[in-house]
């Protein structure tokens, strides 16, 4: 019996480049297609935002990922960056005399807690001397509502901290109220390769469990059957400087060699498969998002990759939502979705006059498209 999906459907209004979009049918595994810049990544971001219930760090992470930051000086004259909450809202430009943008609304099903974001004038910084490069982009706070719970996320300076991520400075981000809805377990990958910090943290959560074998078997799809084991090590020379440079990292042991080798020597495909396998094991009963899933993966590996994803998604009750530009990825997905009892769905995003709309392909449609090479990307 198929478990209930976290995202049976999705409604997005007023978020980034999407004025309005309805996706009515997700599968256990869903593949998003569409032209470049059509909005596939924005859909994945909306899912991340909803799953986090508008979490402070999730919002900051979305802005940092797209470098949507405002540079200026704080009250002490130091150069700082501020989150540009304005950039989250559809076609909103304060310089054009528009006072208030339409709210962002994200929902997944009837009766679920709707996430709503509104911009409000910043109160915390109105008396401080803050010099911005662009005076047409004033400071704005973010009002976050989930169901009946509300809070304000005040804009504040942020600093570049550990592992290249932006985190709030000086306690600028408010805590969520005690009655705030719980987030949905979610992991997000791509379009680039995961960094050492992310994958070693994932490994710590599964160390000395059967999931280690699952990850090793996944890597064998690209590096061959001679792979025996994986391990995470620190820099052997020790010392503060070497740890800052290298940190913890993966090494692989092959039957043909007595010495382990750095995993990164095996290429992008191995790192990509490692990230996918580890993420699947780290978001059981949750959601895995994969942007540009084909990156680094040879087309001949795609059928085995989808087979692994469908099997693991079923066993771990994971809902997988991926995006692609690749025909080989689509064709492999089509055939593998017809070989499993779990539902696979392809959703193609297309643009209308002022909206996006979703074209849904069920498993029969997908099979026919793959056999006849009908364009669905």
Q: Report the CATH superfamily of the largest domain.
A: P-loop containing nucleotide triphosphate hydrolases
Order of H and E elements? EEEHHEEEEEEEEEHHEHEEHEHEHEEH
Strand runs, count? 19
Helix content: 25-40%
> Mind describing the biggest β-sheet?
6 strands, antiparallel
Radius of gyration: 22 Å
Uncertain segments of ≥5 residues (pLDDT<50)?
Answer: 125-136, 160-175, 236-245
CATH topology title of the largest domain: Rossmann fold
**Measured distance between first and last alpha carbons:** 31 Å
Strand residue percentage: 25-35%
Assembly classification? single chain
Task: Give the strand order of the largest sheet, numbering strands 1, 2, ... along the chain.
Answer: 2-1-6-7-8-9
- Name of the level-1 CATH class of the largest domain: Alpha Beta
The coarse silhouette is globular
Count of discrete domains: 3
CATH architectural label of the largest domain: 3-Layer(aba) Sandwich
Structural class: alpha+beta
SS summary, helix count: 9
- Would you tell me the overall average pLDDT? 82
Structure description:
The chain has 377 residues and is of the alpha+beta class. The chain has three domains: 147 residues, 3-Layer(aba) Sandwich (Rossmann fold); 131 residues, no CATH class; 79 residues, no CATH class. 28% of the residues lie in helices and 26% in strands. Strand 8 and strand 9 form a beta hairpin. It is globular and about 65 Å long. About 10% of the residues have low confidence.
């Amino acid at each position: 019996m198929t478990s209930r999906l976290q995202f049976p459907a999705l409604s997005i209004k007023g978020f980034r480049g999407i004025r309005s979009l309805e996706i009515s049918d997700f599968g256990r595994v869903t593949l998003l297609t569409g032209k470049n810049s059509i909005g596939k990544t924005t859909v994945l971001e909306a899912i991340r935002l909803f799953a986090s219930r508008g979490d402070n760090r999730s919002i900051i992470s979305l802005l940092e990922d797209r470098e949507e930051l405002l540079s200026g000086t704080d009250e002490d004259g130091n150069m700082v960056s501020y989150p540009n909450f304005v950039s989250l809202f559809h076609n909103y430009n304060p310089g054009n005399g528009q006072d208030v943008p339409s709210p962002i609304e994200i929902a997944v099903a009837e009766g679920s807690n709707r996430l709503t974001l509104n911009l409000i004038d910043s109160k915390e910084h109105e008396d401080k001397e803050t010099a911005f490069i662009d005076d047409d982009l004033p400071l704005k706070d973010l009002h976050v509502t989930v169901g009946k719970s509300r809070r304000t996320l005040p804009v504040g300076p942020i600093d570049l901290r550990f592992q290249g991520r932006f985190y709030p400075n000086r306690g600028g981000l408010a805590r969520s109220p005690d009655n705030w809805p719980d987030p949905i377990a979610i992991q997000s990958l791509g379009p680039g390769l995961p960094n050492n910090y992310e994958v070693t943290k994932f490994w710590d959560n599964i160390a000395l469990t059967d999931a280690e074998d699952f990850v090793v078997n996944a890597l064998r799809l690209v590096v061959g059957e001679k792979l025996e084991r994986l391990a995470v090590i620190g820099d052997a020379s020790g010392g503060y400087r070497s740890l800052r440079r290298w940190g913890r990292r993966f090494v692989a042991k092959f039957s043909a060699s007595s010495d382990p080798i750095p995993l990164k020597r095996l290429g992008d495909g191995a790192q990509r498969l490692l990230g996918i396998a580890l993420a699947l094991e780290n978001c059981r009963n949750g959601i895995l998002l994969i942007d540009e899933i084909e990156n680094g993966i040879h087309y001949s590996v795609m059928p085995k990759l989808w087979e692994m994803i469908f099997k693991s998604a079923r066993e771990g009750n994971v809902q997988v939502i991926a995006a692609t530009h690749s025909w080989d990825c689509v064709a492999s997905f089509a055939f593998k979705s017809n070989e499993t009892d779990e539902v696979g769905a392809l959703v193609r995003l297309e643009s209308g006059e002022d909206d996006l709309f979703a074209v849904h392909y069920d498993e029969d449609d997908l099979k026919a498209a793959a056999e006849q090479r009908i364009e669905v990307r």
